[in-house]
Design goal:
The complex is a heterodimer of chains A (355) and B (334).
Chain A lengths: L1 H28 L3 H8 L10 H15 L8 E3 L11 E2 L1 E3 L5 H10 L13 H36 L4 H12 L2 H12 L25 H35 L3 H8 L4 H22 L1 H15 L5 H11 L2 H29 L1 H6 L1
Helix pairs in contact in A: 1-13, 5-8, 5-10, 5-11, 5-12, 5-13, 6-8, 7-8, 7-11, 8-10, 8-11, 9-10, 10-13, 11-12, 11-13, 12-13
Chain B lengths: L12 H22 L32 H37 L5 E3 H16 E2 L9 H17 L8 E3 L2 H12 L4 H12 L3 H28 L2 H8 L4 H38 L10 H10 L5 H19 L11
Antiparallel strand pairs in B: 1-3
Helix pairs in contact in B: 1-2, 1-11, 2-5, 2-7, 2-9, 3-4, 6-7, 7-9, 9-10, 9-11, 10-11
Classes of the chains: A mainly alpha (355), B mainly alpha (334).
Chain lengths: 355, 334
Amino acid sequence: MVRQVLRRLFQLLLTAWGIITLLFLLTRTLPDDQQLLSRFTDTTTGTTASGEQVRQAQQARLQRLGLAEPVFYASRATVPIDDEQLLISRWHWNGTHNQYHHWLRDVVHGNLGRSYRTGEPVAGLLGSALLITLPLSGLAALFIVVFSLLLGLLLASRPHTGWVAMGLYTLDSMPLFVVALLLLLLLANPDFLTLFPTYGLGLDNEAATSLPLILTAPAYAVLPVASLVLTGLAEPTLQLAAALRHELQFFYILTARAKGLSSGRVLRRHAFRNALLPILTLYTELLPNLLAGSVVVELIFALPGLGRLLADAAAARDYPVLVGGVAMVVLTRQFSLLLADWLYQLADPRIRTTG
Amino acid sequence: MRPPPQQTTSFGWQQWLAVTWLGLLLLAAVGAGLLPEQYLAPDLLHTSAPPLTPNHGLGTDPLGQDVGMVLLFGARVALCVSLPAALLAAALGTLLGLLAGYWGNQRLQLPACYWLSGFLAAACYVLVTVPSHGLVVWWWPLALGAVAILVGRFLSCITGLRKPIAFPADWLLLTLITLLAALPRLLLVLTVAAASEPTFWGLVVLLTLTTWPQSARLVRAEVQRVRQLPYLEAATAAGLPPWRIVRHHLLPNVWGPIATTIPLSMAALIALETTLSFLGVGLPPEIPSWGRLLAFSRVAPDAWWLLALPGLCLLATTLSLRQLLPVNKQRSTI
């Protein structure tokens, strides 16, 4: 059992390492060095500077961004083709003095590098962003689980609830950012209805209002959480309803009805547990998917969370922040896979005995 | 024999509506290609004009571009990105799923000596090159291939090296899918798009490379199911070559599942493309897109037409694409 868990853990970490390495190399090799430099340096070189000075200044900037060294252990050789030599090596060996090696060593030590834009450590940025994002996505995940269970049971037990399913379909067909924009412009618009505050978390005017943050924050969180819940609700609900309807065709349901149980009890105690199996993964995937969704939601509602950080980093090509944030989401997804394994063992005794 | 009732495909008013809308969209996409680009030129005298302004029936955005024209050109972009990407992804997924499903982990076997020589030749090719120009470029890989086959032949004299080793095609496919699924698709595309600042076709390729796993999974499952059936055993026993079995006995089974994925992945791709444009990392900013129009509604919160019109187009398109499928398949794949 322990060996199985350790093996699985090793697999998950290997996957995470693979994809993060891939993204690191992509973000370090694809962009053009000169464009990056002009993006992240505000100093304009004067017309009097000599070519040598400009070159040195560029070298210094590359050094500051950590881009002066070669990217990987080996890089493509750029030796001129020499007709005398018979075999030419395609690669140039750089040893351990390369960006990837240093980055990986730092990551293992918990140091994710520094932002290109502000020079702040990425780990600190991520930490303060998670303080906003985790409550937000956690709350949204909780609401989605509860509402989808209730709605799924309702859809499966009552006929004539087609309009609920239709509404869910419609919500499911809209991208998250459209729903969020709709909510923002309908319910937090001075020209229309101003039920909720529009932007941020109200941290700035905390001094002005005497109310503590714990009382003001919920009003700011309603719309972001609502847009995440509305778009995330459809899939688990419809799948659960379909699974419940499928289970209701079996004979054990007839047996349960025949021994005198009420139909609600049959649904909740007999069909529900079997119907839950195929959608457990949907629930464990919620957290990583909501983290991805927060990219859009936090940008629209101007919340200083992980999603906003990632969206800004992507738009500004601030790659250390981008890769660091993405690494966090990758780890979350890997652990949600582990959680799914564990939940399956808990929910299905057949897996427990064979595993 | 009575056919089961749920198999009958009803072509109700929803389907007619869906087909009509998609037809209009196609017409708009083709029509926008014929219109000159100057219709997109900003009208600086009427910025953020509401609908029903003279000359601008659907209003203008904060830059002064006519919303109707941007919607028209945006429809073209949405279709031109999502349709090729969906078709290419389906094709790539079908190919990989077929190969992995047919070969599995055991069925593609080669003697160990050929693995050894092939590996050595590949390592040689990757590590060193020879000076060559023009047509002569090809002699190095060709020579390496020939040498690899000869060395393999020679090594096969050693009994120990004749043991067949299987090529784990299925395992490779699953590993690749796991790697791609390690990150939600929006974030994966966002990161790569931010790193490469893709052109139009770059974006299509990027979307294709992140969309194929769905169809590959479906095809692989279908092939694994069919491979157990007696008629395939009969085909194998009749001595048909593998490509013929794959082409004539496996591929026809796969069309059904693949056809259902194409509208769904198109809907998901349109949503993804608009989201990318909204975030400012998708297509280059001079290409009109529904997502860019929606992004303007953040800047101008009182301009409801900047949200309502592209939002309605997006909703109608996604719903129409889903209506093309049988009722039990209309689920999202995002």
